[in-house]
Design a protein that fits this description.
Elements lengths: L2 H14 L9 E4 L19 H4 L1 H6 L7 H4 E4 L2 E4 L10 H14 L10 E4 L9 H15 L4 H4 L6 H11 L6 H6 L19 H7 L1 H14 L8 H6 L8 H28 L5 H19 L7 H6 L3 H4 L8
Antiparallel strand pairs: 1-4, 2-3
Helix pairs in contact: 8-13, 10-11, 11-14, 13-14
Length: 322
């Protein structure tokens, strides 16, 4: 086995331990059948035929037969091509009947090459992006310290995942990358170039980032607790005491954090300008669009949202929830 495939298999086993069935998520789509072992590969979706029908396998002369060798189509009719050391009888005949019944329910096209497909995507094509999302989703539901706070239904899953990583200090700020041995020109914040870039500095305490949070304070007419990442993302003001109001508040704070990080990345990777007023505008628009779409009973109005978003978290009747 080549080194590359060995590494892929090892990586797959590690993913399996995260609660995502990676190694068992691939299946064979049979075309001509010439590239698939009849007895050794799991091409039926029920395990290898060798393991299912051990007595027949013991009688099979051509143990390396392909699916094409065993399932032959003549004028659209299926013919089974067996080569036995002796003809099955007794329990072996029972296995043969069961095997024929299984094969009769399968419909190889016989018109194209065999190909591997992946259960993780709708079209069967494997992508690392979808796999990463599946792993993150599994971690979101399995990490005991953040399960109760990590999911907010008013915002997209990608934002929930980013917030979960932020709470666990697992976003790629320069201090964390340096700890992992990456050769960086500097560990200083790319925005202020004055302090090392930790998670809390990048999301809260950089002077440039703090201007965004002060803008959010003014917009909401509330003092946001930015003493720590956990405080900013998890603290709900005592004046908000009903479920939908809490969801709207939390969703907005999470959109703020997500937007700050996106703007930081554009600055680092695309040399885009940093403008805290533009970030505030983006937060207002994104939070309005996402909350309105996902919380139908929120009844947000754009003009009111821009002027006084706190209205929607302190007036429950306006959300249609009584």
């Amino acid at each position: 086995m080549g080194t590359t495939w060995r590494h892929i298999i090892q990586a797959g086993k590690r993913i399996d331990t995260m609660g995502v069935d990676f190694t068992g998520s691939f299946y064979k789509l049979i075309g001509e059948g010439a590239g698939t072992s009849f007895w050794h590969e799991d091409w039926t979706g029920h395990g290898s035929l060798k393991n299912q029908f051990g007595r027949l396998y013991a009688l099979e002369v051509n143990k390396e037969a392909t699916v094409m060798d065993q399932l032959q189509f003549v004028d659209g009719n299926r013919n089974f091509s067996w080569v036995w050391s002796r003809y099955p009888r007794g329990r072996s005949m029972g296995e043969l009947n069961a095997l024929i019944s299984l094969l009769s329910s399968l419909q190889p096209s016989g018109k194209s090459l065999d190909e591997w497909l992946w259960k993780g995507s709708n079209d069967g094509r494997f992508t690392t992006k979808i796999l990463a999302t599946l792993v993150d989703q599994q971690k979101l539901t399995s990490h005991p310290s953040v399960t109760e706070t990590i999911v907010n239904k008013a915002i997209p899953q990608k934002v929930n995942i980013f917030i979960w990583r932020s709470l666990l200090q697992r976003i790629p700020v320069r201090v964390e990358l340096d700890k992992r041995g990456m050769d960086l020109d500097s560990v200083l914040c790319p925005l202020c170039n004055a302090e090392t870039e930790s998670v809390s500095h990048a999301l809260l305490h950089c002077d440039e980032v703090y201007k965004v949070w002060k803008g959010i304070d003014s917009w909401w007419n509330m003092d946001i607790d930015t003493s720590s990442v956990n405080a900013a993302l998890s603290t709900i003001p005592s004046s908000i005491n009903y479920a939908m109001g809490k969801t709207i508040w939390q969703a907005t704070m999470w959109v703020v954090t997500y937007s700050i990080w996106n703007a930081r990345n554009k600055k680092v990777f695309s040399n885009a300008s940093w403008n805290h007023a533009n970030i505030l505008n983006e937060v207002q628009l994104k939070s309005f669009q996402w909350i309105s779409k996902r919380l139908k009973k929120s009844n947000l109005e754009w003009s009111q949202w821009l002027i006084n978003p706190g209205y929607y978290v302190t007036h429950p009747n306006k959300q249609g929830i009584g």
